[in-house]
Amino acid sequence: MTLVVIEATSDWKPFCYVLAEGLNVILVNARQVKNLPGRKTDASGAAWLAQLGSHGLVRPSFVPPRPVRELRDLTRARTTATRERSRVVQRLEDTGIRLSVVASDIMGISGRAMLEALIRGEADPHVLADLAKRKLRNKIPELTEALTGRFREHHAFLTRLHLDQYDQLTTMIDEITARSRRRWHPFVPPPTCSTPSPGSTSTLPK
Fold this sequence. Notes:
By secondary structure, this protein is mainly alpha-helical. 51% of the residues lie in helices and 5% in strands. The chain folds into 2 domains: 3-54, no CATH class; 66-184. It contains 8 helices and 2 strands. It starts with a strand and ends in a 22-residue tail after the last helix.
């Protein structure tokens, strides 16, 4: 089989993955081969790497198999989407409504209801605070104060965009999570069952 040696620069992935489908590809660390003698230009360096690889003088870097790479892609995409969703929540604070001072999760049932009411044009802080649910109703006076502000049509427009973006990112995160769980399944070891020894007692989960 033909041997291909690729230096791990910034754009190695597309070439490595394509060539690896039919060739024996060795990915080498750029730092490892940077100061090797005999490398003067890119062309001579490529020939030198090929010679080193054919003689087993370079240490191949680990390239994960495709299932692992795809799971990594999903994990990174979910992390990016989660961070962006957190930024969206922070942007809601720019509207001048200090809801997060009182409610720990402004995207919860109560917070979302208040934001939607603000978008519809409700300006009375007492009416808005009365939308609180469950334990948050104990903080209606604090909510009334926090919801007193200058929430104009401009803020309603931006808040609508932010909420829609939040929902889109949530859907994206849910879809990535579901796909990741399916891809993760082959890597999860099967449960082991042990037979209790004579005289021992077992406790069933409650």
